[in-house]
Amino acid sequence: MYISELFTADRASLLEKAKKVLAVQAHPDDLEFFAGGTIAKLAQRGCEITYLTITDGSRSTTNPKITPEKLAETRMEEQEKAAKILGVKHLMWLGYTDSEFQPNLEARGKIIRAIRQTRPDVLMTLDPWLPYEAHPDHVNTGFASCWAAMFSGFTNVNQEHFIEGLAPHQVSTVCLAISAKYNAYVDITETIDLKIKALAQHKSQFQSETEVGLGPFEIWETIIKSVAEGFGKERGVRYAEVFKVLTPLEMHCNLSLAR
Questions:
Q1: What burial letters (b/e) apply to 80-98, b meaning 16+ CB within 10 Å?
Q2: Which of 137, 166, 194, 204 could form a disulfide with 26 if both were Cys (CB 3.0 to 4.6 A apart)?
Q3: Sheet strands (E) in 42-172
Q4: What are the helix and strand counts (H, E) for the chain?
Q5: pTM of the predicted protein model
Q6: Is the pLDDT of residue 6 over 90?
Q7: Structural domain total, the chain
Q8: Residue 208 banded pLDDT, cuts 50, 70, 90
Q9: Is the Cβ–Cβ distance between 188 and 196 less than 8 Å?
Q10: Which residues, 6+ apart, have CB-to-CB distance to 69 below 8 Å?
């Protein structure tokens, strides 16, 4: 019997029944893009959700008129507005420079501290194993978060946290957004409008001028709904988001998942 066969619970239920979620993103707007409908649904059910944003988002523009400092300030304000729409009440920031984040021991320790502070059932982050992902912040945030989930319950890891009054805490479930090998669907038919409204708050990333940002928001609204509709058809609902849901044990020497 492979290790993965020991875990027979419905994967989506491991996420949807969570009472506390620590959602770790590389930049302001990542979580709205890839998990906004799910986050809104969890919040409506009474789940306590905390955002941990790794970088300041200060480099994500092609507009020569905006400084890194001003963009970072703007993106923080946009994220606060978006989180409020989804029902996220707690936001934490690590402040690493956008596009330069490295998943070293210091970074891992900071995420472990956040886990020990918030004590979540589920850690949500970006899938670092997504094929062809070229943004280092996405990949490195995913890896650092998974490593933190692996070691946050170990008593001999980051013992300096204990002086701060923080105790070890083992995350029970890791939820990877934007995953090519998803194993869980979440029906977001009732919350996709909140996802769209929240994402629209990131105005610095959606400019009408072709030389700035990702392009008009209306185009991305169409894309987002189309993708969610495609996943929904796979599950028999109108709109869905998908995730790779794992236990920390499954993320350690698990040959069955490597196939």
A1: eebbebbbbeebbebebeb
A2: 137
A3: 48-55, 90-96, 122-126
A4: 8, 7
A5: 0.93
A6: no
A7: 1
A8: low
A9: no
A10: 58
Residue 255, domain member (yes or no): no
Residue 189 has pLDDT above 70, yes or no: yes
Instruction: Extract the runs of DSSP E, i.e. beta strands, from the chain.
Output: 20-25, 48-55, 90-96, 122-126, 173-177, 184-187, 240-246
Instruction: Report d(CA 132, CA 35) in Å as an integer.
Output: 20
**Residue type (1 letter), 239:** Y
Domain for residue 91, yes or no? yes
218 domain-assigned: yes
Residue with tokens 């020990």: 116
For residue range 68-111, list pLDDT tens digits in order.
999 999 999 999 999 999 999 999 999 999 999 999 999 999 99
CATH code for the domain of 105: 3.40.50.10320
Q: Is residue 257 part of a domain?
A: no
Boundaries of domain holding 9? 3-249
Give me the residue label for tokens 């990702």: 214
- The answer to whether the beta carbons of residues 178 and 241 sit under 8 Å apart is no
Report the amino acid identity of residue 69: E
Please state the length of the chain. 259
> At 24, is the pLDDT very low, low, confident or very high (cuts 50, 70, 90)?
very high
